[in-house]
Amino acid sequence: MIEVNYLLVLGLAVFAMALGVLWYGPLFGRAWCKLNGVNPDNPVEVKRMQAGMGLVYVIQFVLTLLMVFVLYVYTKPAVDVVNEVEGALWLWAGLTVPALASAVMWTTESARQQRKRFLIQAGYFLVLFVVVGVSVMLWG
Q1: Residue 124 counted as domain residue
Q2: Which residue among 5, 15, 74, 98 is least packed, with the fewest CB closer than 10 Å?
Q3: Model-level pTM?
């Protein structure tokens, strides 16, 4: 049985949410708004998109906590940072990328919009998975 550092898992879930705020805010927020049919220069539209997001953030945090826990459990057995990151990358490439690609392919968006949506989301998860892999090695 793998011993779990629950404080680290909780901290990584909080980190994931903070990364999401940066990723879907200052870094790619304009592109994300446009992909979702919101004019990022129209404060009324942005406010409307943000309205009622409290419950969504709570649900997202619970889902993120589960994801980070599973990543922890599956990367913990590695013995060094290369293996930790490699394990996280395999999980990202083998599970996250196909799931995101499938979800995006079945939208009615143009191929260009699909690529943008996929790259923004896959990039977020890539950064998150690498950070989790390194963190589990260092403090797990």
Answers
A1: yes
A2: 98
A3: 0.91
Whole-number Cα distances in Å, 91 to 86, 110, 125: 9, 28, 10
Per-residue pLDDT tens over the stretch 4-18: 999 999 999 999 999
Full domain range(s) for residue 108:
6-139
Alpha helices in 51-110 (DSSP H): 54-75, 81-91, 97-105
Looking at the structure of the chain, the number of domains it has is 1
Q: CA–CA separation, 128 vs 89, rounded Å?
A: 10
Token pair, residue 80, equals 């060094």
Residues 6+ apart with CB under 8 A from 81: 133, 134, 137, 138
CB atoms within 10 A of CB 5: 15
